[in-house]
Design a protein that fits this description.
18% strand, alpha/beta, 30% helix, 11 helices
């Protein structure tokens, strides 16, 4: 009897393990609002690319499904998109120095990338673009002031593409297209930043001499040109071959006429990476978040540029996402919001998209 009971227990355990392994490859966050998406992939094996934190760009597993998109946030405006055998990096700022919480990886770990899209040329968005581009052979795209900055660094000129974002530019790659659109850099009012940054400077520890020294070569790989504000910030619309559309923006400025015109033509996007503006005060950050919501009409929002240094630096304060999410969902109840830790993957079945009515 004891042996029979043990055998039955082992059979039950095996069934449970098998069922768990075949439950579905990953949980698409849109399953919250769509039963069809929630049930997709039932009885398919778990996809390691949608659970492990190791970047595909650093040797991690690529998504198994041809139309699976794996997204990882890597601090500030950095994201990795893995889709259809391609690796797209959004911004390139990984070696940030000891003032920051560790990302769990370094720029030198990245050995694979097909494309790097730079939102703008400040060092905290492009400081590792030249080294990664030259090592991987990736095409690097940016505004004129951004590519002028890259030209002073060690990357082959033929890998760099300059875009204005003023219309008529469509970049075609294997499995997706990219449309650059002129954005605008964030411009928090001096009446606010002078007060807040003075107060924070008095309350927070200053960087050490060693931290200041390590920051200098990082800052030198970007630009401080005022041209970044009105001609050097680019938003990108990435359209996958399934029709799934992604909007990427890495600075919290107002929505431009170019963005409005493009969105009037394009319509809604499936996924928007939207920056948290540097306005400190929740009502002001909410106002900017709602402008992005109205302009892009996304099905899913993932925030960016909301982490910060641990010691004194520009806007040295993490920005909460919850008040913004609550305000956006009050206006768009079906909106799905996703905010995860560094390198924690989120996967989408892109065969479900707004162009197909989900």
């Amino acid at each position: 009897m004891a042996r029979a009971g043990l055998s039955a227990a082992l059979v039950t355990a095996c069934v449970l393990v098998s069922a768990a392994a075949l439950a579905r490859p990953f949980s698409d966050p849109r399953g919250e609002v769509s039963e069809r998406i929630d049930q997709a992939g039932a009885n398919e094996p778990r996809d390691p690319a949608c659970h492990a934190r190791k970047l595909v760009a650093a040797g991690g597993a690529a998504p198994r499904g041809r139309h699976t998109l794996a997204v990882r946030w890597i601090g500030y405006g950095n994201f990795e998109l893995a889709y259809g055998g391609q690796v797209i990096l959004l911004d390139a700022y990984y070696d940030r120095g000891s003032e920051f919480m560790p990302l769990g990886m370094a720029a030198g770990d990245i050995t694979r990338a097909n494309l790097i899209l730079l939102g703008h040329g400040h060092f905290d968005h492009m400081s590792d673009a030249a080294s990664i581009g030259s090592r991987t052979g990736a095409t690097v795209v940016g505004a004129p002031i951004t590519t002028e900055t890259l030209a002073k660094q060690s990357i082959p000129a033929q890998q760099v593409r300059t875009v204005s974002g003023r219309g008529g530019e469509l970049l075609t790659f294997n499995g997706f297209t990219v449309e650059p659109i002129l954005g605008r850099h964030g411009e928090p009012g001096k009446h606010l930043t002078e007060v807040m940054e003075t107060a924070l400077a008095q309350l927070m520890p200053a960087p050490t001499a060693a931290q200041e020294a390590e920051a200098k070569p990082i800052a030198a790989r970007g630009t401080f040109s005022p041209r970044v504000i009105d001609e050097g910030t680019i938003a990108y619309v990435i359209t996958l071959d399934t029709g799934f559309r992604i909007l990427y923006r890495d600075s919290g400025g107002v929505v431009t006429a170019e963005e409005k015109a493009a969105m009037a033509r394009i319509g809604r996007v499936d996924l928007a990476f939207t920056p948290i503006s540097a306005d400190y005060i929740n009502p002001m950050m909410i106002s900017q978040a709602l402008e992005y919501l109205h302009a892009y009409q996304p099905a899913v929002v993932m925030p960016d540029h909301h982490d910060a240094p641990r010691t004194m630096g520009h806007v040295p304060q993490w920005r909460a996402t919850e008040p913004l999410f609550e305000a956006m969902k009050a206006e768009a109840p079906e909106l799905v919001t996703v905010s995860k830790e560094y390198r924690e993957p989120t996967c989408f079945n892109t065969e479900f998209n707004l162009q197909h009515g989900y």
